[in-house]
Amino acid sequence: MGTVFSFDVRGGEPGAVRAALAEAVAALHRVDERFSTYRPDSQVSRLARGEIAERECDPEVAEVLALGAEAEETSGGWFCLRHRGPLDPTGIVKGWAAERAARHLAAAGAGAVSVNGGGDVQVLGSPGPHRPWRVGVADPVRPGRLAAVVSAAGAAGLAVATSGTAERGAHVLDPRTGRPAATDLLSVTVLAPRLTWADCWATAAFARGSQGALAWLETLPGVEALLITADGEMRGTPGLSGYLAAQ
């Protein structure tokens, strides 16, 4: 998937948690093998070229394509698996894979789990009494500094995903043109219970631009967001303040 995953796992029976961690890592490698658009022999690459049908792929491929179709409908087309070109599910795969890894570890008995996939984070549980998970949001205006710190206090699980140009340049495409999105935003950070959707909604909101993104995000249940515009202005959904912690 072209990025680094990291795990922070607390509690549980050590043997069971170690085994689950090994399984989660192996599953991430399998996801990369099946979904990578950079591997000509991946199932997604072969599916895009018409060499195989969806029914011949692993069931995970059908699952992700269905989730992508749901995301496209919910976003009004601003999230898309094709972008006027060949099939490319990479906009949803990373968040889905990281969330799945976190839930696998929790199901194995871990009391608290944080999985970070290239800066997008799924947390479950709490790392200690009165000690919630905290996730920093990078400041695209001031490299090396934080724009905000998000606290998962009171939440059984929280996902934090950011889409923007600070780390990877203009990589988010406008699905209507297939070209880099002409947006007045530097970054969009979305908070939601599930990283699968937080990742999608951050991408769709960034492509949409600030004029429509904030109003659209406010319609999504359980979702909060922080938008940072090209002139450094910070805008948030009404409930965002309930998740912000002191830096």
Could you walk me through the main structural features you see in this protein, from its secondary elements to its overall organization?
The structure is a single chain. The two termini are 31 Å apart. The model has no long low-confidence stretch (mean pLDDT 92). The chain has helices spanning 14-35, 43-48, 59-74, 90-107, 195-208, 210-217, and strands at residues 5-10, 112-117, 120-125, 134-138, 146-151, 157-164, 185-192, 224-229, 234-236, 244-245. The protein is of the alpha+beta class. A hairpin with a 2-residue loop joins strand 2 (112-117) and strand 3. Helix 1 (14-35) packs antiparallel against helix 4 (90-107), helix 4 (90-107) packs antiparallel against helix 5 (195-208) and helix 5 packs antiparallel against helix 6 (210-217). The strands form 2 sheets. Strands 1-2-3-6-7-8-9 form a 7-stranded antiparallel β-sheet. Strands 4-5-10 form a 3-stranded antiparallel β-sheet, with no helix packed on it.
